[in-house]
Automatic annotation (TrEMBL), chain A:
Allows the formation of correctly charged Asn-tRNA(Asn) or Gln-tRNA(Gln) through the transamidation of misacylated Asp-tRNA(Asn) or Glu-tRNA(Gln) in organisms which lack either or both of asparaginyl-tRNA or glutaminyl-tRNA synthetases. The reaction takes place in the presence of glutamine and ATP through an activated phospho-Asp-tRNA(Asn) or phospho-Glu-tRNA(Gln). HAMAP family: GatC (MF_00122). Transmembrane segments: none annotated. Heterotrimer of A, B and C subunits. The keyword Iron does not apply. This is Aspartyl/glutamyl-tRNA(Asn/Gln) amidotransferase subunit C. It catalyses: L-aspartyl-tRNA(Asn) + L-glutamine + ATP + H2O = L-asparaginyl-tRNA(Asn) + L-glutamate + ADP + phosphate + 2 H(+); L-glutamyl-tRNA(Gln) + L-glutamine + ATP + H2O = L-glutaminyl-tRNA(Gln) + L-glutamate + ADP + phosphate + H(+). GO terms for molecular function: asparaginyl-tRNA synthase (glutamine-hydrolyzing) activity; ATP binding; glutaminyl-tRNA synthase (glutamine-hydrolyzing) activity; transferase activity. The gene is gatC.
UniProtKB/TrEMBL annotation, chain B:
It holds the Pfam family Amidase. Its EC number is 6.3.5.7. GO terms for cellular component: glutamyl-tRNA(Gln) amidotransferase complex. This is Glutamyl-tRNA(Gln) amidotransferase subunit A.
């Protein structure tokens, strides 16, 4: 059975917040099934005794002196905002229906 | 000296010498490169943005310094550079070649840009790439293709095709790239230039637009090994703003490159990676690779074959880890604080969540969407252990393979890319065939080890071939020495640099 059905791609598009078109859903499911076949084989060698690696150059966490710095100004931080008002980002409605 | 044509063909190190000897000014260098850019861009299209005014201003500021101040600066002071548009530049539009960031002017500089500015290296502009550095041909740029200077009908590689093409075409003596799976080295191979991925954590990633954070590394692009070494010394070393930055000074790579130029490799043990040669590699690529290995032997190196048995799983592990990190990193493009915002159509509720979904649908290209979807899957409940968990284990096995290999040899070698530059459209319909371009470059990113590509000559198709050196973690200098030695030996054989065989109509008539 293929890993990626149309329904699975629609669900993933929803999770990833991408309003995929019908055409994209078809093409992505086809392509990802080809890709999945060739990457699935990592499971063959990933035995229980092998520890996972997250960072290839592990470093010990360390603290640095707590020195105050000047952050971006409000104007700089807002300079790229798609919509702004009174020194704030404007977001569309977030909660429920009206 | 005003012969722009011969000026731009010099190495960056030589340009630096002439600046110190006052034979030229930084302004003259910048103007010469801007002339080449104007003449070459209609055919090469390496740049997304040319920052001519910024570059001239920085050049004038360098020229106005006292001799004493100039003497305290790095050797490359006053030499101009191009920047991959994956690295943020204060006041200069930065897009990652994506519609979602089109028009964004960053309010801050990446650490590497601060260091270039401190070294008084003028910024010529921002170079083209595959969108968010995702691709191997620069064809996934949202804005335009970049053409390979060796054959304008072919790709320059990717994702850093713009930086490589700009340096190959003499539009810039140096450039910065970012390398997540080969995005500096593979374009280097396809354009006959030098490209270096330093040790993970050797160069600060602060201000590099994040693609896959455990794999990404900024590095140099140049025409000579020494030029890359000098540039790595300018940008490298610890940065407190990057928590993965190694708390050590930059490695002595320029001294190692200069040592290599003497052409003596006695005592050096070189390992041929068994899994990265032969089948799957174009015969012309393999032939140039074998000849270069013979040259290493002639210079006194001992060459043995070494096996890294888990490399056959590297591509699979990479195509799980990378999209997983991509899906997480690219979640920040939500239409709220910067970049594109697209509101949903009228019949869809005008909510923030729907705005995000329509913004991301409109702002991301198909390759980026494909990877976000794949990564979202690999990280989702129920699949995490089988996919992401397994890939992280394979990563451990590959790191152990490299450790064992470096117990036997000092440096590992392979061809950089299985093929020479391919034609536009040849691989865009089949993502898997595009992914296979990076088969030889991905292992170094997974293991965090430094690696570099240098030109090894032309294949029987007349196109450049890349030769890859890989060194142990935090020992970047170990690869610079044999790379510089091989470069010298090859150039003696060719009686000049590789680019003497490249046709450059955009340089003709520049001095009229």
């Amino acid at each position: 059975m293929p890993t990626f059905t149309r329904e699975e791609i629609m669900h993933l598009g929803n999770l990833a917040r991408i309003a995929l078109t019908e055409r994209e859903i078809d093409s992505i499911s086809g392509e990802l099934n080809v890709i999945a076949d060739s990457i699935n084989k990592v499971q063959q060698v990933a035995g229980e005794d092998v520890p996972p690696t997250a960072n290839p150059v592990p470093l010990e966490a360390y603290l640095r002196p707590d020195t105050p710095e000047t952050p971006l100004t409000q104007e700089q931080a807002l300079a790229g905002a798609p919509v702004k008002e009174n020194g704030m980002f404007v977001a569309p409605r977030i909660l429920g229906e009206e | 000296m005003s012969d722009a044509n011969s000026l731009v063909q010099l190495s960056a190190a030589r340009m630096g010498e002439m600046l110190r000897a006052k034979e030229i000014s930084s302004r003259e260098l910048v103007d010469a490169h801007l002339d080449v850019i104007e003449s070459a861009e209609p055919s090469v299209q390496a740049f997304l943005k040319i920052s001519a005014d910024v570059a001239r201003e920085q050049a004038d500021a360098f020229d106005a310094l006292s001799d004493e101040d100039k003497a305290a600066l790095p050797e490359l002071a006053g030499v101009p550079i191009a920047i991959k548009d994956m690295i943020v530049t204060k006041g200069i539009e930065t897009t990652a070649a994506s519609r979602i960031l089109e028009g964004w002017v960053p309010p801050y500089d990446a650490t590497v840009i601060e260091r270039l500015k401190a070294a008084h290296m003028p910024l010529l502009g921002k170079t083209n790439l595959d969108e968010f550095a995702q691709g191997s041909s620069t064809e996934h740029s949202a804005f335009h293709n970049t053409n390979n200077p060796w054959d304008l009908d072919r790709v320059p590689g990717g994702s850093g095709g713009g930086s490589a093409a700009a340096v190959a075409a003499f539009e810039a003596p140096l450039a910065l790239g970012t390398d997540t799976g080969g995005s500096i080295r593979q374009p280097g191979a396809l354009t006959g230039t030098v490209g270096v991925k330093p040790t993970y954590g050797g160069v600060s990633r602060y201000g590099a637009i994040a693609m896959a954070s455990s794999l990404d590394q900024i590095g140099p692009v140049s025409r000579t090994v020494l030029d890359s070494a000098l540039l790595q010394e300018v940008i490298g070393g610890n940065d407190r703003r990057d928590s993965t930055s190694i708390p050590e000074p930059v490695r002595p790579v320029a001294a190692a490159a200069r040592e290599g130029l003497k052409g003596d490799l006695k005592g050096l043990k070189v390992g041929l990676i068994k899994e990265l040669q032969g089948e799957g590699f174009q015969p012309g690529v393999q032939a140039r690779f074998d000849e270069s290995v013979a040259l290493l032997k002639e210079m006194g190196a001992e060459v043995v074959e070494v096996s890294l048995p888990h490399l056959e799983y590297a591509l699979g592990a990479y195509y799980i880890i990378m999209p997983s990190e991509v899906s997480s990193n690219l979640a920040r493009y939500d239409g709220m604080r910067y970049g594109l915002r697209v509101m949903p159509p009228e019949d869809v509720p005008q909510t923030a969540a729907n705005m995000m979904a329509y913004t991301r649908e409109a702002g991301f290209g198909e390759e980026v969407k494909r990877r976000i979807i794949l990564g979202t899957y690999a990280l989702s409940a129920g699949y995490y252990d089988a996919w992401y968990g397994s890939a992280q284990k394979v990563r451990t096995l590959i790191i152990e393979d490299f450790k064992r290999a470096f117990e036997q040899v000092d440096v590992l070698v392979s061809p950089t890319s299985p093929t020479t530059a391919f034609r536009f459209g040849e691989k865009t319909e089949d993502p898997m065939s595009m992914y296979l371009n990076d088969i030889a470059t991905i292992p170094a990113n997974l293991a965090g080890v430094p690696a570099m590509s240098i030109p090894a000559g032309l294949s029987d198709d007349g196109l450049p071939v890349g030769f890859q050196f890989i060194a142990p973690q935090q020992r970047d200098e170990v690869m610079y020495k044999p790379a510089a030695a091989l470069e010298t030996a090859l150039e003696q054989r060719w009686q000049g640099p590789i680019w003497q065989d490249m046709k450059t109509p955009w340089l003709d008539g520049l001095n009229k």
